[in-house]
């Protein structure tokens, strides 16, 4: 059980974490979400007693970390994969940590086997890839067989198989009754792993609820309406009529309309009344990813701008069109503001259904284009039966979605 | 794999107990939990110091410098002195040059013992594994001091024995033997310990090494350029208390006639190191890692 009360940390005049209070309970995986620079790692460091809070306090099992007797036997942590001396062999690194807390050396070989590094145990960790470094860090966290585990971005740099392994590892650790606290900036990853979510932005608490509640509170449905491509005027006509009826209409890039605020039968009636034929009328659920992004959009510190290349471009030949900017770049407030009341008028996502950040043809977003919304269908079951999206696109596509700077 | 389910608790998984005052099940490890003490930290630091190559390199170069220069100096003196002797001089004093140069290696190793953990980020892992930060610093200090002392003693003993056998000089007294081997080794090891402590304060390898080399050489160099009459006293003090001069005191061939003598340099270094250690300890407890 981790308990933070009024946790605040200031570095000079920058407030990294402000008045954060939460509890992390045993027996479940608690996801710790926030954009880059939102204070996740700072909070983790304060939990581990590495940084002293400016105000407030955080305890593990009732003790501040530095007062815990034999702390590594009670709390294991992966803070960052590069927190090792690169010149030391993996096994020696773990042996030195084991000796520090009186853990038998036999245990070192056990955890090396658990993380799959037994073949490179004698190699210096300098030559490790990021994924191998993560595995070594996870081995160090598991070394003390602790009942509280903290992982800061554990899937960074792991291959799809490794991601699946970490996901299952965390669930099995939680199933044994341990407290598992995992930070990530990937909502998609957390949706599959976590039972409970703590979301922060700019160092402040945005949400502290179960994944189920988070979905219920934050993801809202919309209807997709498609009119015959051959007659664009029908589209305008229908859009006008729907708006008149109180709906909220957003055009999508492929010509469809995204309609919120009107039930499906009513949309059909309006279309009938205005003599517009429909090619598609389908219900959709906004993804958790989008819900998370909307929630944190005001709290994003590092936002990309359009790359102007001013003065570097050659004169365009006469008649040539300047390239279309990739949607999502350099446009603050790309996400529509949150609905006026919870569960009321759902938010409107921008055109371009797969992900606002993925432009047409952006390679990183390509896998998402076909399956725009891996959570839409499974959201209700997401926490219990975290199904298996194709392992490869799941980590890579959302990675691009959450990181504007990557989706260029 | 296609239907991941929460895995069942492993068979090794132990009794589910309710923690006092809590209704949640908690996990209890089957591995017995021991009470940790300084001994654990010492074992850990010993593993750390012998499992990186920089230790082997710095100590290897140190031994090479001390023994190599010591033997070369002795051979040179033996070959060039016409009557085959150096008369009244303490023959052990030929080890001075090697140790002066070699102390740079000990300084480097001392700084690296602490500062490299900050450079690599290892310190966060260490301090998470042992939240008693003072214990880590104490363990590092003890392990490093012992290693530095033993290696310096061995190297200086080899040089001393060679000097005495190669040179046709008077037999050194027991006091001279003690100061020329154990005394100077304690001094060099303390100098290394001071570097370790400075590394812990500065938290940056290159910065701390530069500072320590400055401490080692700057007073002497600055004194060389103090021509002004009014600064004569300061110049004299800088000469006398510069580390090279203090080193030479152990062979009782001080560059100056006044200033520290006998075992004074050791006490001076001990006080300085203890003060720096106290400062480093206080900072370590207070600062964020």
TrEMBL record, chain A:
The family annotation for this protein states: Belongs to the ABC transporter superfamily.
The ABC transporter domain extends over 2-227
GO molecular function of the protein, one example? ATP hydrolysis activity
**Compositionally biased region (Low complexity):** 342-354, 362-385
Q: Where is this region: Disordered?
A: 303-408
Domain of life assignment = Bacteria
Question: What is the protein's species of origin?
Answer: Streptomyces muensis
PANTHER family recorded: ABC TRANSPORTER, ATP-BINDING PROTEIN (PTHR43335)
State where composition is biased (Pro residues). Answer: 386-396
**Designated name of the protein:** ABC transporter ATP-binding protein
Residue intervals passing through the bilayer: none
Keywords assigned by UniProt, alphabetized: ATP-binding, Nucleotide-binding, Transport
PROSITE patterns from the entry? ABC_TRANSPORTER_2
Could you confirm whether the keyword Transport appears in this record? yes
Gene3D superfamilies, alphabetized:
P-loop containing nucleotide triphosphate hydrolases (3.40.50.300)
From TrEMBL, chain B:
Annotated Gene Ontology cellular components are: plasma membrane
Q: Where is this region: Disordered?
A: 1-20
Q: Which UniProt keywords apply?
A: Membrane, Transmembrane, Transmembrane helix
Instruction: Tell me the domain of life.
Output: Bacteria
Signal sequence range:
none
Transmembrane feature ranges: 56-79, 91-115, 136-162, 182-202, 209-228, 266-284
Picking any one GO molecular function of the record gives: ABC-type transporter activity
Query: Which PANTHER family does UniProt cross-reference here?
Result: INTEGRAL MEMBRANE PROTEIN-RELATED, MEMBRANE PROTEIN
Name of the protein described by the UniProt record: ABC transporter permease subunit
């Amino acid at each position: 059980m981790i308990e933070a009360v009024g946790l605040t940390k200031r570095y000079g005049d920058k407030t990294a974490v402000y008045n954060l209070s939460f509890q992390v309970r045993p027996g479940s995986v608690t996801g710790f979400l926030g954009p880059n620079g939102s204070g996740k790692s700072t909070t983790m460091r304060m939990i581990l007693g590495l940084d002293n809070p400016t105000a407030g306090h955080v305890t593990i099992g009732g003790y501040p970390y530095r007062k815990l007797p034999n702390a590594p036997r009670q709390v294991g942590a992966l803070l960052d994969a590069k927190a090792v001396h690169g010149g030391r062999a993996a096994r020696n690194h773990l042996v030195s940590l084991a000796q520090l807390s009186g853990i038998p050396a036999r245990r070192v070989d056990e955890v090396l086997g658990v993380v799959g590094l037994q073949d490179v145990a004698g190699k210096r960790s300098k030559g490790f890839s990021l994924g191998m470094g993560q595995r070594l860090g996870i081995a160090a966290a598991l070394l003390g067989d602790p009942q509280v585990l903290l992982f800061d971005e554990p899937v960074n740099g792991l291959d799809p198989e490794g991601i699946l392994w970490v996901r299952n590892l965390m669930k099995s650790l939680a199933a044994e009754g341990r407290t598992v606290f995992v930070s990530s900036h990937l909502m998609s990853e957390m949706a599959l792993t976590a039972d409970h979510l703590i979301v922060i932005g700019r160092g402040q608490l945005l949400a502290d609820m179960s994944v189920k509640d988070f979905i219920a509170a934050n993801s809202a449905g919309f209807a997709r309406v498609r009119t015959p491509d051959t007659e664009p005027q029908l589209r305008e006509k229908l859009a006008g009529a729907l708006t008149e009826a109180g709906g909220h209409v957003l055009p999508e890039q492929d010509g469809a309309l995204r309609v919120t605020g009107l039930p499906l039968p009513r949309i059909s009636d309006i279309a009938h009344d205005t003599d517009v034929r429909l090619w598609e009328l389908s219900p959709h659920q906004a993804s958790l990813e989008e819900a998370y992004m909307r929630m944190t959009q005001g709290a994003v510190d590092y936002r990309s701008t359009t790359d102007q290349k001013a003065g570097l471009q050659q004169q365009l030949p006469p008649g040539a069109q300047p390239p279309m900017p990739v949607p999502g770049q350099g446009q603050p407030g790309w996400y529509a503001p949150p609905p006026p009341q919870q569960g009321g008028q759902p938010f409107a996502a921008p055109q371009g259904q797969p992900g606002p950040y993925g432009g047409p043809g952006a390679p990183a977003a390509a896998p998402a284009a076909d399956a725009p919304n891996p959570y839409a269908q499974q959201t209700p079951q997401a926490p219990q039966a975290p199904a298996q999206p194709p392992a490869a696109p799941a980590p890579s596509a959302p990675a691009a979605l959450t990181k504007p700077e990557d989706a260029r | 794999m296609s239907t991941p389910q929460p895995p069942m608790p492993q068979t090794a998984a132990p009794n589910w107990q309710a923690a006092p005052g809590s209704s949640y099940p908690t996990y209890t490890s089957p591995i017995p939990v021991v009470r940790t003490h300084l001994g654990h930290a010492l074992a850990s630091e010993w593993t750390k110091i012998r499992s990186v190559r920089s230790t082997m390199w710095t100590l290897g170069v140190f031994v090479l410098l001390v023994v190599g220069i010591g033997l070369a100096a002795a051979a040179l003196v033996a070959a060039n002195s016409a009557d085959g002797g150096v008369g009244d001089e303490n023959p052990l004093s030929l080890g001075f040059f090697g140790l002066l140069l070699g102390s740079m290696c000990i300084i480097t190793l001392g700084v690296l013992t602490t500062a490299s953990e900050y450079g690599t980020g290892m310190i966060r892992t260490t301090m998470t594994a042992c939240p008693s930060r003072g214990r880590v610093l104490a363990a590092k200090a003890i392990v490093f001091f012992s290693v530095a002392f033993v290696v310096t003693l061995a190297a200086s003993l080899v040089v001393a024995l060679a000097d005495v056998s190669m040179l046709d000089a008077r037999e050194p007294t027991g006091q001279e033997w003690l100061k020329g081997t154990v005394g100077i080794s304690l001094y060099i090891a303390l100098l290394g310990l001071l570097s370790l402590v400075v590394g812990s304060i500065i938290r940056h390898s290159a910065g701390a090494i530069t500072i320590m080399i400055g401490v080692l050489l700057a007073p002497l160099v600055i004194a060389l350029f103090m021509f002004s009459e009014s600064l004569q006293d300061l110049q004299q003090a800088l000469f006398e208390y510069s580390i090279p001069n203090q080193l030479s005191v152990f062979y009782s061939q001080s560059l100056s006639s006044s200033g520290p003598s006998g075992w004074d340099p050791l006490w001076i270094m001990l006080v300085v190191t203890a003060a720096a250690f106290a400062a480093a300890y206080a900072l370590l407890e207070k600062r964020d890692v």
